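We modelled the chain as a single entity of 86 amino acids. Its sequence is:
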Amino acid sequence: MKLEYSILSVPYITRDLVDRKLKERRSKETSMFNKFRLTAYLLFIPLINYTGEPLIRHLNKRGIHTCYWVVNHDDELLDLAKTSEV
């Protein structure tokens, strides 16, 4: 697959983001569709975060640098440094 970019930024699900999305999901103003969308988002993205390492290794070998964004806590950053090739 041809990618036009030299960097791929991937959202990493942090505790802060999960808390914000859960509050948004509990809001009375949130429609049923958006509640479903938020639930799917909260379930699907962490799966990609934890199973995407083969893709990340492949992209890095192709010269496409990868990075996670919005990592707010030291323990989350240390965990990523130990377990990820990002």
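As a brief sanity check on the tokenised model: The helical segments are 15-26, 32-51, 53-61, 74-83. The chain has a mean pLDDT of 82.
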